[in-house]
Amino acid sequence: MTSSTLLLCSIALLYSASFGAEAWTSPYIPVSSLISKSLYDKFFLHKDDTACPAKDFYPYDAFIRASKSFPAFGTTGCLATRKREIAAFLAQISHETTGGWATAPDGPFAWGLCFKEEISPQSNYCDSTNTQWPCFPGKSYKGRGPIQLSWNYNYGPAGKALGFDGLRNPEIVANNSVIAFKTAMWFWMTEQKPKPSCHNVMVGIYVPTEDDIAANRTAGYGLVTNIINGGLECGIPGDARVNDRIGFFERYTKLFNVDTGPNLDCAYQKPF
Ligand SMILES: *[C@@H]1O[C@H](CO)[C@@H](O)[C@H](O)[C@H]1NC(C)=O
Ligand SMILES: *[C@@H]1O[C@H](CO)[C@@H](O)[C@H](O)[C@H]1NC(C)=O
C-alpha cells in the first residue's frame, strides 16, 4: 500500500470515530472480492491435512456464505480497513483452532482452522448461575467452531440470533460448517457490555471511555485479543498465546498487503 492510502485510511479512521463509520466509506465490495478462494487457501495451508481433525470442515464457500448474514463484516471503512478486519478475524479464529507448533511445516502460522471442537474439555462449561440461558442436562458447552464458542451464556444467545437451539443442540456448531462460521461472526459483530464488539474496534467505530484510556484499551488488534480472552491473556508482557494471535495476524496482513495498524499487543492493557 502507498503512504497516501495509509494516510487516507488513518484520516478515515479518525473521522469515522468522531462522526460514525458511514461518514467515509468506499463503495460496497463483497467479501468474496476482497479475499479470493486462492488467497483463503494460502492462509490455511494445512486445514485439510489428514492430521487435522477439522479436515474439510472449513471450506471457503462456508466462510463466504456465513459472511452474507453479517452485511457490515469486511465491508466497512476504506479498502485497507476492510482487509485488515478480515485478516484480524481470520487470525483470531486461527489461534483458537490452531494445529501449529514452532517447527511445523510452513511455520506455526500456516496451521489455522485445524480443530473444530475442544478435545479434552476441562468441564461441560455450564454456568448454572445463569438462569437466562439454562444448561440442558447432559449437554456440553465446550469450545466448538472457528471461535471455539463456549459456555451456555454464549451458545444460548448465539443460537437465538442465528436460528438454532444452542442450549439443546450445541453440537450443531461442530456439525454444520456455515453455522460454525456464523457463530464466530456473531461473536465478532456483537457487543457484550462492557466490551465493545471486535468489529467496531477494527473498523474505527469504537470510542474509548476515560476508564478505557486509563486501562490502555485503545483501538487495535491487541484490544480484540482483550475482548476475546483478555481476562487470561492481557496485562502479561510476553504472553505466548497473545504472541501466537499476533503471529497469525502479521502473516495474514502481509498476504493481504496491508499494515497491521497500531496496538498489536495487549501486554500493557488491563482486561475488561
Ligand atoms: C454431530 O452431532 C452429533 C450429536 O448431535 C454427534 O454425535 C456427532 O458426532 C456429530 N457429527 C460430527 C460429524 O461432528
Ligand atoms: C499502560 O501502558 C504503560 C506502558 O505503555 C504502562 O506503564 C502502564 O502500567 C499501563 N497501564 C495499565 C493500567 O496497565
From TrEMBL:
Active-site residues, Swiss-Prot/TrEMBL: 96
Cysteine-cysteine disulfides: 52-114, 126-135, 234-266
One Pfam family recorded for the sequence: Glyco_hydro_19
Keywords tagged on the record: Chitin-binding, Disulfide bond, Plant defense, Signal
Keyword tRNA processing appears in the UniProt entry: no
Source species taxonomy: Eukaryota, Viridiplantae, Streptophyta, Embryophyta, Tracheophyta
Protein name as catalogued: Glycoside hydrolase family 19 catalytic domain-containing protein
Source species, domain of life: Eukaryota
Domain Glycoside hydrolase family 19 catalytic: 179-189
Molecular-function annotations in GO: chitin binding; chitinase activity
Gene behind the chain: LOC100784196
